[in-house]
Amino acid sequence: MSERKPHPSDLSDEQWSLIEPVITAWKDRHRSVSGHQGTYKTREIVNAILYQGRTGCQWTYLPHDLPPKSATYYCFAAWRDDGTDRVIHELLCCQVRERARRLEDPTLVVLDTQSVRAAAGVPAATTGRDPAKRVPGRKRGLAVDVLGLVIAVVVLAANTHDDAAGIILLDQVAEHVGGTVRKALVDQGFKSQVVVHGTRLGIDVEIVERNPQDKGFVPQPKRWRVEQTYGILILHRRLVRDYEHYPSSPTSRVYWAMTHVMARRLTGENTSTWRDPQTVTA
Q1: In sequence order, which residues have a C-beta less than 8 Å from that of residue 255 and are 6 or more positions away?
Q2: pTM recorded for the entire structure
Q3: CATH fold for the domain made of 104-244
């Protein structure tokens, strides 16, 4: 492929160097029997995944200067199914925590859920209607650390109770961070089941109650981090609505979105937004 004009979502050389070793190792483990190296560079395939995540376009609407759906979706699905997307995410997460002078694994996490509408064509068997928020679609659950970094993700039907999502998140947290987490903060949407399950895992789950005198949105200490992370994820238009056939795909989308965010943090680079400072007037 000839040189092209970069898209705002493309990885810079420094950002690519952060994840390239993982991708190269994966490619070495999946060599073609014929020795063919593939038509498209893996860096360009990652750029296509990030472009789609940021813009929300359909697979067939990927720009002609990026790899097509056939190559991009093949790698997206392969990395989703074998956990490569999570390996890259966790590698960068450890680096961001280290730079912030934190231990590699957190001791406190914050749990929350968000219901998003499902697009037409998403299987009805994996969707539902959130009775509290009146949203038909899927429920996305996150566990984040005090830096707002994602530690665990779960995607379920929107009619699933928060406790069910919380139990799965706590299991993932206990499995992937080596048992270092001792405390979890949740809102009033979670009930006693998640508290009891946390006790079994050695995690003290605290239900943070909202001050009844507060009006409107009032950030709660430490818990506001998960709200901030949801806000960051919604900047990636593929996550504004759930378009994916398999629930594992929006989970992978979250990992790729946060990988992109952390790569920018580690390199001190920003991605352009729709706001052009040169056109803003007082």
Answers
A1: 85, 86, 88, 89, 150, 153
A2: 0.90
A3: Nucleotidyltransferase; domain 5 (3.30.420)
